[in-house]
Amino acid sequence: MSEDRHPAPLPPGVTRRPVRRYTADGRLAPEEQDTVALEEPLDIRISGDTVAVTMRTPGADRFLVTGFLFAEGLIHSAEDLGGLAHCGRPGEEGYGNIVEVTPAPGLVIDLERMGATKRGTLTTAACGVCGRRSVEDLMATCSPVPPGPELPASVLAHATEHLRSVQPNFARTGGVHAAAALDERGSVLAAFEDVGRHNAVDKVVGALVLEHGLRSARASQPAALRPTVLVVSGRVSFEIIQKAAMARCPFVASVSAASSLAIDLAGRAGITLATFVRNGRFNVYSHPERLREG
């Protein structure tokens, strides 16, 4: 993008930095302004105690924090949250990068569950299960996703196409991931972008918890909603399957590949895992019995 004396306002999550481009004819072009993805730290605190620090794209922080706590098993529904707010005042240095969580009255959140992420240890956007050692450890904290529902293979084959319409920041920068939750008909329930693919998933899960009544398997009441497909733009790692399992989501679809441990966990957790979902095709690694032709 060339420099503009009066540039148009940027969307949230995007900023500008100077750049000089080396061209194919061997010339170093003059400096201009480029649009890049915004990345800032988020300090997540519970009752004043830092639980984790993650690098994220600012915006939808309440969803990100809620999804993160839900995926770690620290909360099981929106009713477990008494309060969630940014610390400080607008205009102060660092405002917007610290979120304070207050548990619901009478609820004690077990911070020891966080293991290595507790008390200031950096949880990067590429690390969603710090301290978890194996599939067995995770399966001890969340039961497998129940069988069903069946889904036409064509719905899964075109699932990643929904990401195109929810990636305005990617279109401007090429530097962010996206995630979306779909219902059985393939309609989008929630979708977000973030510099971290795990953060994008946390924002989606947090929106399902706060706005759609998603509850974990350990909640006192049955879930009001069960998302059907979690769609992600990047590689499927162990952590992505963990978050899908905690959200009781039976399908995960990715534009890219999956790691060996993600495949193993999907099989154990009862999740149908599809990768390289592009142009109406995909590879399925686990629980293909949920798919029917059509």
Report the biggest beta sheet as strand number plus sense, adding barrel if it closes.
6 strands, mixed
Structural class: alpha/beta
The CA-CA distance between the termini, in Å, is 43 Å
Report helical residue fraction: 10-25%
Mean pLDDT: 86
- What pattern of helices and strands is seen along the backbone? EEEEHEEHEHHEEHEHEHEEE
**Looking at the structure, what is the overall shape?**
globular
Q: State the low-pLDDT regions, or none.
A: 116-122, 124-131
How would you describe what is shown here?
The chain is α/β, with parallel strands linked by helices and 294 residues long. The longest helix is centred in the C-terminal third of the chain and has 16 residues, at 197-212. Helix 1 (61-71) packs across helix 5 (197-212) and helix 6 runs parallel beside helix 7. The strands form four sheets. The chain has a six-stranded mixed beta sheet. A four-stranded mixed beta sheet has the order 4-3-6-5, with helices on one face. The chain has helices at residues 61-71, 135-139, 153-157, 168-173, 197-212, 238-246, 260-269; strands at residues 14-19, 32-37, 40-46, 49-56, 81-86, 98-103, 151-152, 177-182, 188-194, 229-232, 251-254, 272-278, 281-286, 291-292. Residues 116-122 and 124-131 have low confidence and may be disordered.
